[in-house]
Model the fold of this input.
Amino acid sequence: MSRNIQVSELDRQAVEDQSVEIVERKGVGHPDSISDGIAEAVSRALSELYLDRVGKVLHYNTDETQLVAGRAAPAFGGGEVIEPIYLLIVGRATKEYDGHQLPVDAAALTAARDYLDETIPELDPETDVIVDVKLGAGSGDLQEVFGEDGATVPMANDTSFGVGHAPLTETEAIVHTAERKLNTEYVADNPEIGPDVKIMGKREGDQITITVAAAMVDAYIADLDAYIDAVEGVREYVTALAEDITDREVTVDVNTADDYEEGSIYLTVTGTSAEQGDDGSVGRGNRANGLITPNRPMSMEATSGKNPVNHIGKIYNLLSTKIAEAVVDEVDGIRDLQLRLLSQIGQPIDQPHVADTQVVTDDGVALADRTDEIEAIIDRELGDVTEITRQVIDGELSTF
Done:
């Protein structure tokens, strides 16, 4: 059966040519990203539980996780959490199959606490957060996601769509790379920076402004001078990183709401604003490619926590990004590519209702000369769609 793959010229400017570009990324310690991360950690844990006990992934979704902020009293040298963060893991899961009870809630609770312990090291998962699991039960016989026994390709659970694009613009690359490196490479030598790093990029013409909101951990900040030094360290690091990516003029601002005279600074006990005032929800932050990109079409689906077997809101957002990257990597002369995959409920997920690809080529490159190559790669990747399921369960793909 031939797939409905459409390739056409993008009917608007490439993003790099637009006069204004806006890009955002919420770091792993942002309350929305914490919700995404826990939902996805629980999702993987349930998949692994089902595979271990039953031999296949059963019906579940954990994409409704909510975070309610706590209260804290940060202070130079170390403050304290006064009221714990509250996390509610909500969704549906198969708790009984073929007469056997499955420890779904226990698996979810363990996964959530392990994720918090790894991602927010200054937060004590035993005292600084309450994790509540409210997963409704579903019937294993009725809620299997594979359709008929023996089916090699699952049927789509919904009529929905996913969106992907490639390559990243320079602004997108700066925003994504800066948060990831601050939360991995930089923090290794600078523990005063917490994982709640939010980055907003704005490009006007050839001028890029990067605004960083970085939660500082009070235990590593002795006084205001040390805080100011920490802020300047982040500014210098991101500036150098950006200059390695672009030749455009770059300005980096850090913690712009600070008022040193009033003593109002972004100081935290745990390194996340979730400790005081900022709530979080799955799906309110980064899209499946790790960015929020209003200059491009985006899906509003919450990717994290959805079942990775046939839930289009997860699979097609991850797959469209993977396909876009593969096409740009393998086909010469593509400057900008955007892909929309639409499913139809009950149809095989390797047979989208349409795979709509819009392309901007380099000057002097005719799209007609590249169409066959583009279609072949899309067809190949769609044929291998079930590999997305394995990669998600194994933790090889990020959903936010």
Notes: Confidence is low (pLDDT under 50) at residues 144-148. Helices lie at 31-53, 104-119, 140-143, 170-189, 224-245, 312-330, 371-383, 387-393. The CA atoms of residues 47 and 173 lie 32 Å apart.
